[in-house]
Amino acid sequence: MAQSRANGSHYALTAIGLGMLVLGIIMAVWNLVPGFGPPDKPGGNSSKPDRGSGGILKSKTFSVAYVLVGAGLLLLLLSLCLNVRDKKRQSEDLAIAHVQRQVSAEPSQQEDRMKTSLPNTTCPATRR
Question: Where, by residue number, does the polypeptide cross the bilayer (predicted)?
Fold first, then answer.
């Protein structure tokens, strides 16, 4: 039951991260493609583009797009790390359970060997 909850949260984290990443990319592309804005504006859809150093177009929308892409990548990375950690923990738990089964099976096999290897003798006090 706890494993299914963990998987559900990993899927949700992945979906949110992927959605934020795609939304950020769409916002960045929307600003760069000319022709989607009003006819009086040359260029993309940004509200007030400023020319920064090096001719890079900067606006509030680009900042939001960068934040969305970064947050989406972080969430995807977090989901991946949590998934790897859970897989590792699950394999360790299976290995421990396997070792415990082997350890618990060995004493019963030794007892069976002892019973079959001992001669069938009775206690001298009980012989009459």
Answer: 12-33, 64-84
Amino acid at 51: R
In tens, the pLDDT along 84-99 reads 998 898 888 888 888 8
CA distances from 84 to 8, 67, 89, 115 (A): 15, 26, 9, 47
Answering whether pTM is above 0.85, one says no
Domain parsing of the chain, residue ranges: 2-84
Sequence-ordered list of residues with C-beta below 8 angstroms from that of 57, at least 6 positions apart, any chain:
31, 32, 43, 44, 46, 49, 50, 51
pLDDT tens, residue by residue, 17-72: 999 999 999 998 888 887 665 555 555 555 555 555 544 556 788 889 999 999 99
Give CA–CA dist 114/78, Å, rounded: 55
Query: Rounded CA gap, 81 and 75, in Å?
Result: 10
